[in-house]
Amino acid sequence: EAGVAQSPRYKIIEKRQSVAFWCNPISGHATLYWYQQILGQGPKLLIQFQNNGVVDDSQLPKDRFSAERLKGVDSTLKIQPAKLEDSAVYLCASSPYRGIATNEKLFFGSGTQLSVL
Amino acid sequence: AQSVSQHNHHVILSEAASLELGCNYSYGGTVNLFWYVQYPGQHLQLLLKYFSGDPLVKGIKGFEAEFIKSKFSFNLRKPSVQWSDTAEYFCAVNEGTGGFKTIFGAGTRLFVKA
After folding, report:
1. B68-90 pLDDT, tens per residue?
2. Residue pLDDT, tens place only, B12-27
3. Residue B33 belongs to what H/E stretch?
4. Nearest CA distance, A103 vs chain B (angstrom)
5. Which pLDDT value is given to residue A105?
6. Which long-range contacts (CB under 8 A, 24 or more apart) does A53-56 make?
7. Where are the domains of chain B?
């Protein structure tokens, strides 16, 4: 089956510029996640969607980060304006399960490596 | 709030040595536990998982992990590592009911010398 697709693979911008990342999850996966992975750290959840609704965005810096999943399929994550500390790999993941009792594994994309200069 | 601690940030082993990577979590309720692996140049992928039942779970490539509820631990083990096990290993936890937000540890970089 096709995996989680992300683009671009790499992005270099200057601070205060804007940037957008795109993610297409595995077909039929209801749940979509955006994680931020700073060098030397584990992935940190930014936002979680169930279909096109937000389940958790408690760690999303909402003054500069935004995300949407309009039709419950692909998603975009935007940073405006970017700061130096936003340099990281932005990972998209999806999961097929809708239930609340348990959750199965996450399928990850290759990520977008962002460098803010 | 949940948190996940991985004790070793870097581990260097020779081939055929035994491996144990520590993972502790903080959450008092029902949890689901995972180990993910990221090989050089590849994306994160699931190594093994625990939801319920036998606390000793077996995953791919000869890895296993043991859930010890009283110690809030889920350590990863492999009796004999290979050069191809060189990778970064992440322990992850999510709550067993509702929300199912998955929290990751900081990761352990394993380098296996041939």
Report:
1. 999 999 999 999 999 999 999 99
2. 999 999 999 999 998 8
3. strand B31-38
4. 6
5. 80
6. A55/A31, A55/B99, A55/B101, A56/B99, A56/B101
7. 3-113
Residue B102 has its nearest CB partner, among A45, A109, A111, at A45
Q: Given A4, A48, A111, which is nearest B101 (Cβ)?
A: A48
Q: Which residues of chain B are within 8 Å of residue A32 when distances are taken between CB atoms?
A: none
pLDDT at A101: 44
Interface residue A40 vs chain B (CB under 8 A) = yes
Superfamily per CATH, domain B3-113: Immunoglobulins (2.60.40.10)
Q: What is the pLDDT of residues A30-68, one digit of tens each?
A: 889 999 999 988 999 999 998 888 988 989 999 999 999
Could you give the CA distance from residue B80 to residue B62 in angstroms, rounded to a whole number?
Answer: 9
CA distance B89 to B113: 17
Q: What is the CATH number of domain A5-98+106-116?
A: 2.60.40.10
Residue A97 CA to residue A117 CA, distance in Å, equals: 39
Distance in angstroms (rounded) separating the CA atoms of residues A27 and A7: 17
DSSP state, B73? E
**Mean pLDDT within B2-14:** 92
Strands B10-14 and A75-79: unpaired
Encoded amino acid at B37, one letter: V
In chain B, which residues have their Cβ closer than 8 Å to the Cβ of A106? 36, 44, 46, 102
Domain extents for chain A? Answer: 5-98+106-116
Tokens of B33: 């536990």
